[in-house]
Design a protein that fits this description.
With about 280 residues, the protein is mainly alpha-helical. Helix content is about 75%, strand content about 0%. The protein is built from 9 helices and no strands. α3 packs antiparallel against α4. The longest helix has 29 residues.
């Protein structure tokens, strides 16, 4: 999620350029959906992940199409489903194997559905979509498959959300120094807010939910803040290259699903790795 510097909103939400009441309402609904599915039947949460990632994939497919880049939705969506199931019931090796299989499927699919012109361009974009967000999202299933997977997933989501909220608040209140031209609304003050929020939330939840050490949770939080920012910048690079402002508008006050997934999927791998090493 990009920070918003102070300014006049034309959408009637707030001076930050976002419809904050709508954004908060959507956040509450999504949070309730996550908690209910996560702490009742884990497989239901897995379905939520599949649904969210599938919408994100469709947003990317539509965005690529604006530049005449053809990404076949059907095999990528099939890959989303298979990779989530492979990760949850099979583990990391099956996740990687299923990714490799569907990457090959995409290369062959493009070979027989269009001519040679634009093959490298289309195939590259297709495999990119299969990786980001589809493969990266599979690490949510790897977190979930553990005995305390519900708590691990909650920590992962909480630190990523804390990164967004901390960065947003600090960027609006104190943001003065631009961080990069890739995303002009991002500031170093916003990044500092993300790191502080993530460190506090990570340390608290790791001690409370997993019985870990404060430093372990703090390290997870710091890494999550940095990688969440990277995820935001990756999405910004894609949008700038395609010449579009937004990938979607399905979530009032937030934008598209990819605007929610961009930081989540890039945070997943390091959080999974650290939790696997620590616990």
């Amino acid at each position: 999620m990009e920070e918003r510097t102070a300014g006049t909103s034309s959408s009637g939400g707030s001076r930050t350029g976002r419809n904050l009441p709508a954004a908060i309402a959507v956040g509450v609904v999504l949070g309730a959906l996550v908690l209910v599915t996560l702490y009742t039947i884990k497989e239901l949460f897995l379905l939520v992940v599949v649904g969210a990632v599938s919408v994100g994939v469709l947003e990317l497919v539509k965005a690529f199409a604006t530049r005449d880049i053809r990404v076949p939705a059907v095999p990528v969506l099939a890959g989303v489903v298979v990779m989530q199931g492979a990760a949850y019931w099979g583990g990391p090796v099956w996740l990687l194997a299923s990714f490799a299989v569907f990457a090959l499927v995409l290369l062959v699919w493009r070979m027989f559905t269009a001519g040679t012109d634009g093959y490298v361009r289309d195939a590259s974009a297709s495999v990119l979509t299969l990786f980001y967000p589809a493969l990266l999202a599979g690490f949510a299933a790897l977190l979930l498959q553990e005995g305390d997977g519900d708590n691990r997933v909650l920590i992962f989501i909480a630190v990523t959300v804390a990164s967004d909220i901390g960065g947003y608040a600090a960027g609006v209140l104190f943001g003065r120094h631009k961080m990069t031209s890739i995303s002009p609304k991002k500031t170093w003050e916003g990044l500092a807010g993300s790191v502080i929020a993530c460190t506090v939330v990570g340390a608290w939840l790791v001690v409370w939910l997993l019985g870990g050490e404060i430093w372990q949770g703090a390290l997870i939080g710091i890494l999550a803040a940095l990688l969440a920012t990277v995820g935001d910048l990756i999405e910004s690079m894609i949008k700038r290259d395609l010449g579009i402002k937004d990938l979607g508008s399905i979530l009032p006050g937030h934008g598209g699903l990819m605007d929610r997934l961009d930081s989540l999927v890039t945070t997943l791998v390091p959080v999974w790795l650290l939790m696997t090493l620590f616990f």
